[in-house]
Amino acid sequence: MTTAIINLDLINEITHKNGKIAGYADRIESEKIIGNINKINQWAREQKYLVIHVKVGFNHHYLDSSHISPIFSKAQQNNILCLTEWGCQYHSELVVKPTDIEVIKHRISAFYGTDLDLICRSNQINHVILTGVSTSMAVELTAREAHDRDYKVTIVTDATTCASDTEKNSSLSILSRIAALSSTQELLTLN
């Protein structure tokens, strides 16, 4: 096993139409992002690759949240991203298996302050395939950190999205310098 799928922030708060910060839930639905991710995860399980679900969230006391970040500073005040609440549960359409790994993050990057690198190194992972939301935030920052940690990085372009096509395409254009870009169909025809 040398490959891991890393699915980013597929939680209700961000992806479900009733999520408090789900500004582009309609795009996630219309672009079939979660459906594509389920196909990728099933393919990965058949290949015996690791499937890792990473979610952003905070404990009920919010002491692990940044109080200066423009993104996270109002989490407690607005009662969002609390790990024990519905908002931090995975979207009901996402298929999560008991053999999958879960990583909790408290910042944008999946690597910052988490066990993700340890899990990957312990399992001889040298290639990470990124999916999830948002392209211009969690996917981009995780890709940059994975690159700098000497992982081969692939981003599945139709398994990630953000607020607009312009924002997504800009992010992917920049990331193409450090990562391979693939569609779900192209990825599934490998091996």
Describe this protein's structure:
The protein is α/β, with parallel strands linked by helices and 191 residues long. It has helices at residues 12-15, 25-30, 33-46, 116-122, 135-148, 165-175, 184-188; strands at 3-8, 50-56, 101-105, 127-133, 152-161, 180-182. The chain has one domain: Isochorismatase-like (Rossmann fold, 3-Layer(aba) Sandwich). 32% of the residues lie in helices and 20% in strands. Helix 5 runs parallel beside helix 6 (165-175).
Structural class: alpha/beta
Strand order of the largest sheet: 3-2-1-4-5-6
Named CATH topology: Rossmann fold
Order of helices and strands: EHHHEEHEHEHEH
- Oligomeric state of the chains? single chain
Which key terms come to mind for this protein?
6-stranded parallel β-sheet, alpha/beta, 191 residues, Rossmann fold, 7 helices, 20% strand
